[in-house]
Amino acid sequence: MSLQAEIDDARKDIRTDSYSVSIGEWISLYERGEIDIHPEFQRFFRWTATQKSRLIESIFLGIPIPQIFVAQRPDGVWDVVDGLQRLSTIYQFVGILRGEDNALLEPLVLEKTKYLPSMLGYKWEDPHDAAHSLSTAQRLLIKRAKIDVSIILRESEHRAKYELFQRLNTGGSLLSDQEVRNAILVMINPGFYQWLRALSREDSFVESTAISDRAVEEQYDMELALRFIVLRKMSEADLRGLGDIGEFLTDMAAKLAEDKQFNKNEEEQAFKATFTLIRDTLGADAFRKYDATRKRFVGGFSVSAFEAVSLGIGYHYRAGQRKAVPNLVEKIRKIWSDQAFTENSGSGIRAAGRVPRIVPYGRRLFRS
User: Which has fewest Cβ within 10 Å: 10, 37, 58, 215?
Assistant: First the structure.
């Protein structure tokens, strides 16, 4: 197929429309339940009060606000694909933003900004603090300001909005890869997202991985849980062709979330059995480097060790079994002096080259 033919074919998958919407109408859409900003997303996004205040400042000054991208669902409701923080900031400032439990969040109190330092302490409207409430004219100025919307119409290919979300929220974004995946999973199948999140909070998994608080904040624990689920039974031929691990995990997460035949019960049992065995054997040392000279485990979490050990043990799991692994501690210590492992691990080795070698290595090591 020629390049032009591919372009023409791909463009058929997406149908869009766009126009300007006043902030007053954006507010009404939310109040009427005609737009879904997915309150679950709020844990993935980390705008500060300063960033929020700058947005309100921009509206006051008439600075154009980047357009909002939404996808139209079959029921007509708009799913926000890009623009969550802009809309959430406006809704919080007005005092209508609700969290996951549907409870109203505390209204935003503005900070001083470069051009409007007198905004400090101002709120949308507070009957108990009229001195720090916007005037009617100031509220109308905000409500009459417009933000463009680009709509992916419901006739579009059903995964178009997830593809767009991924493209708009990677690269220069402050989101981690897994935070983007999580947001996509919430849009596709909230139940799958909740299931994966619950796995990442299993005590045996948390205690054996022992990753940093910063890594947990960026949802790396959920990425590790996803790696286990996705890679555990993958054939060696497929492992060799996985390419960029980040894009691969995103694609697979979406496919599993949409797969009605996916056996979550079996995968959950394998997950719990594997990490319980690892935790009970070595605890937080399981995925740390073993220093033969000092005869102890040192350093922090190693993703290479995680891929060799957890996926090696998990591959041999059989439903309903919690099979002991003979000489497990010795085998884990051994990998750090084994050339087959050390040559394919470490910070200088890309995941696309590491995973196809490390995962089969672990399977062979923990075969019996």
Answer: 10
| Distance, first Cα to last Cα, the chain | 49
43 token code pair: 């844990």
Structure token pair of residue 255: 């496919």
pLDDT per position as a tens digit, 20-56: 999 999 999 999 999 988 766 655 556 889 999 999 9
CA distance 41 to 187: 10
Residue 137, CA distances (Å) to 95, 143, 310 in order? 18, 10, 61
Report yes or no: 192 and 257 within 8 Å, Cβ to Cβ. Answer: yes
Q: How far apart are CA 26 and CA 30, in angstroms?
A: 7
Q: What whole-number distance in Å separates Cα of residue 221 and Cα of residue 217?
A: 9
Give the tens place of pLDDT for each residue, 60-90. 999 999 888 888 888 888 888 778 889 999 9
Q: How many residues does the structure list for the chain?
A: 368
For 214-244, give the DSSP string.
HHHHTTHHHHHHHHHHHHTT--HHHHHT--S
CA distances from 288 to 66, 285, 300 (A): 45, 5, 6
What is the domain partition of the chain in residue ranges?
A: 3-158, 177-365
Q: How many CA atoms lie within 13 A of 121 on its CB side?
A: 5
Please identify which residue in the block is written with the tokens 């429309």. Answer: 17
CA distance 248 to 255: 11
- The answer to whether 109 touches 122, Cβ cutoff 8 Å, is yes
